[in-house]
Amino acid sequence: MHSASFDFIFVLLLLSDLALLGSSRFTILIRTVSAQGVLLGLLPLMTGEDGNTFRHYALAAGVIALKGVAFPFLLNRARRQAGVSREIQPLVGFSLSLLVGILALAFSIWMGFKLPRPMAGTSHLVVPMSLFTLFSGLFLIVARHKALTQVIGYLTMENGIYAFGVAMAYQEPLLVELGVMLDVFVGVFVMGIAIFHINREFDHIDTRQLSKLGDWPQSAPASPEDGFMEKEML
Fold first, then answer.
1. 3-state SS of the chain?
2. What is the dihedral of CA 107, 110, 113, 116, to 10 degrees?
3. Distance from CA of residue 84 to its chain's centroid?
4. 180 phi and psi, to 5 degrees?
């Protein structure tokens, strides 16, 4: 395992997490999560101790294709269909979000050095940066109102889980890893369809306005007197 290369990728992952927390424009958010996908796609190529095999190249290509290309394409399509360009009036402001992110980073580093590393030679940044990416995604889901931003938060959470899994359990079979990626792909695809239908029905994708759902109001049934008067007229 190339520890220096892992450190470089995880530092870039850290910067991308901060960019997600501090940005309001959807184009920047989607490009950032796409860059995360490309960075994570390079991780399998650095886990081979005796050189890369077909498994490593196949996994790297699959991750880059899904996380770096397919997911951003679906998100951009949902953004265009919804006609939104930025997150407005989030639950937690963007400056305060960066402050919360720095605190979460400090907590992740503390947790990372408290937890034992399962394998010798593993980068010290694997656990802290994976936890920080997971926390960043969870924060985007909780602190943002637009459904599109919450989908990006879901992808960011999955990126953190994936980074931890590839770095710590890189002997996992290829079919299992690709199966997990397929599940995430289906999840994002369904979320994109949900965003489209929400915007079509309600002309917005603000989840605050979806907290109360009820039956469609029906017209009041005709009274017996109305029926009697109708007969009299006939």
1. CCHHHHHHHHHHHHHHHHHHHHCCEHHHHHHHHHHHHHHHHHHHHHCCCCCCCHHHHHHHHHHHHHHHHHHHHHHHHHHHHHCCCECCCCCCCHHHHHHHHHHHHHHHHHHHHHCCCCCCCCCCCHHHHHHHHHHHHHHHHHHCCEHHHHHHHHHHHHHHHHHHHHHHCCCCCHHHHHHHHHHHHHHHHHHHHHHHHHHHHHCCCEHHHHCCCCCCCCCCCCCHHHHHHHHHHC
2. -60
3. 18
4. -65, -40
Residues contacting residue 221 through CB under 8 Å, at least 6 positions apart = none
Q: What confidence tens digit (pLDDT) does each residue in 36-57 have? A: 989 988 887 876 555 667 777 8
Residue type, 110: W
CB of 108 closer than 8 Å to CB of 139: no
| Amino acid at the residue 169 | A
Please give the Cα distance from 93 to 210 (Å, whole number). 21
Task: Kindly report, residue by residue over 139-196, the tens digit of the pLDDT.
Answer: 998 888 887 888 888 888 888 888 887 766 655 555 556 656 666 666 666 666 566 5
User: Tokens representing 36?
Assistant: 């995360």
Burial class (CB in 10 A: 0-12, 13-18, 19+), 137: buried
- Single-letter residue type at 22: G
Q: Is the pLDDT of residue 114 over 70?
A: yes
pTM for the structure as a whole: 0.75
Closest CA to 34 of 95, 94, 76, 84: 76
Tokens of 18: 């901060």
